[in-house]
Each structure stands twice: as structure tokens, then as C-alpha cells.
Amino acid sequence: MPASSKAQQTTARVALAMKRGEIPKTPGTPAYDMMRTMTDEELRDLATGPIVKPKK
Known about the structure:
- Pfam families: DUF3008.
- By secondary structure, the protein is mainly alpha-helical.
- It is 57% helix and 0% strand.
- It has one domain (6-48).
- The protein has helices spanning 6-20, 30-37, 40-48.
């Protein structure tokens, strides 16, 4: 699943780091919510995949 923006990709990277325990978990942030609802594989794909703009 490709990211739709640079901000979404960055948030996925932060969420993945939280899930791995590399940075502290901060409840109430979009990255924290993403970390709780997505699997490691989904986060990794979103964080490392290409950015694809949605077609209008």
C-alpha cells in the first residue's frame, strides 16, 4: 500500500519506530493511532514504499 503524501509516509515511519520500541509511545498522536491499528508489515510497506498521489 503506497503512501499518498510525504506526511503520511513520515507518520508511518514514526509509528513503526514506536512499535519497535525505538522511540517512546505518545498517546493522542496520529502515529500512535496508526501504530495500534496497523501490522508491522503494513507500516513497513507504507513507510518504505513509493508516494502515489490519488487520481482526482
